């Protein structure tokens, strides 16, 4: 490739990323507006509405709704018809965020104090419960959704319900792992397939269903969502150790102090020398670990090649996600889904 071709290729990549960013921003705003209008949180008892709305103030890419909408268009559907269920996916995600923060005793989320920090645990539980209750009210809202076949909508709602169950199963596994040092990579992958990837899979599955996709198209997009979701979580684990704390929105190394058995930790403990193991265990699951102890644990994991290993595994899942889309016809929506797969491992927060 000569210099001119190289500049042309770089320009094309930048143009594609700009288009992706623009599309994500547009649909994030549409998602925010739809949720605000549908929930009418300000009409609820002041502590309830305010605490439930707080979780949305940290912003976010609204990645799961975006994937649902792009999946819908990738099979020739109307994204507007899929918007209610796409927003329901975001509500389900944020319900889990509030409750996860309580269970993990996380004090920050997206740079803001967690709901339970501001309003206390009982109110935070109620805020999460209300968002969960609103999931299915929002999912069935909108005239365009009413024009779709009832059987298709019911199937999509079943996918949404199954994802909610999977999230609970995955979170239970995650908590159980905190008390164990012998968690295997296979167990970790099964856990994140439930806790994280299930909602990504549900997003693209629901989008494909509402878009009128064939069974083959629905399955390809479901596979894409799951593979991308696994990559997302591995990348999230990496960000928890490597990101800029201001961009991450929570303390770097907090997962280590909480005792999370990430792929990085599992790989490191399997290969650590006695000295390296002591450095890791001094911080792992130790809520009182100092910043120096956390830094030493991260340094040991880096020296063991555990961060690099996790990055490579995330890339493998991204590649698998892209392969799942190979059977779909070319379209702007398919192109943006491919770009989303790259985005999940290149993001900085």
Under CATH, the topology can be stated as Farnesyl Diphosphate Synthase
CATH arch. level architecture: Orthogonal Bundle
Return Rg in Å: 20 Å
Counting DSSP H or I runs of 4 or more residues, the number of helices is: 17
Spatial order of the strands in the main sheet?
1-2
Instruction: Based on Cα principal axes, name the global outline.
Output: globular
Succession of helices and strands: HHHHEEHHHHHHHHHHHHH
Largest sheet: 2 strands, antiparallel
What percent of residues are in strands?
Answer: under 5%
Average of per-residue pLDDT values: 89
User: CATH superfamily name?
Assistant: Farnesyl Diphosphate Synthase
Distance from N terminus to C terminus (CA atoms, Å) equals: 34 Å
Query: How many domains comprise the coordinates?
Result: 1
Structural class: mainly alpha
Strand elements, count = 2
């Amino acid at each position: 490739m000569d210099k001119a071709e190289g500049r042309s290729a770089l320009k094309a990549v930048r143009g594609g990323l700009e288009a992706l960013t623009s599309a994500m921003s547009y649909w994030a705003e549409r998602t925010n507006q739809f949720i605000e209008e549908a929930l009418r949180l300000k009409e609820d008892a002041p502590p309830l509405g305010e605490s439930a709305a707080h979780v949305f103030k940290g912003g976010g890419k609204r990645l799961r709704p975006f994937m649902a909408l792009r999946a819908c268009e990738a099979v020739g559907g109307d994204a507007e018809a899929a918007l209610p269920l796409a927003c329901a996916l975001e509500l389900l995600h944020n319900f889990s965020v509030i409750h996860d923060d309580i269970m993990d005793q996380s004090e920050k989320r997206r740079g803001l104090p967690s709901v339970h920090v501001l309003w206390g645990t009982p109110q935070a539980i109620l805020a999460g419960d209300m968002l969960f209750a609103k999931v299915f009210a929002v999912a069935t809202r909108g005239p365009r959704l009413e024009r779709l076949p009832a059987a298709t909508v019911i199937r999509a709602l079943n996918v949404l319900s199954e994802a909610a169950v999977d999230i609970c199963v995955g979170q239970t596994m995650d908590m159980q792992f905190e008390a164990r040092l012998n968690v295997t990579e296979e167990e970790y992958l099964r856990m994140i397939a439930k806790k994280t990837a299930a909602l990504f899979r549900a997003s693209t599955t629901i989008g494909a269903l509402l878009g009128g996709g064939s069974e083959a198209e629905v399955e390809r997009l479901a596979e894409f969502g799951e593979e991308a979701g696994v990559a997302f979580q591995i990348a999230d684990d990496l960000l928890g150790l490597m990101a800029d704390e201001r961009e991450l929105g929570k303390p770097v190394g907090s997962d280590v102090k909480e005792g999370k058995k990430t792929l990085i930790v599992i790989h490191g403990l399997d290969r650590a020398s006695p000295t390296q193991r002591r450095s890791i265990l001094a911080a792992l699951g130790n809520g009182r670990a100092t910043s120096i102890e956390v830094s030493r644990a991260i340094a040991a994991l880096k020296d063991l090649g555990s961060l690099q290993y996790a990055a490579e595994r995330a890339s493998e899942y991204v590649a698998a996600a892209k392969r799942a889309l190979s059977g779909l016809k070319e379209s702007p929506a398919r192109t943006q889904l491919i770009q989303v797969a790259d985005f999940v491992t290149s993001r900085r927060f």
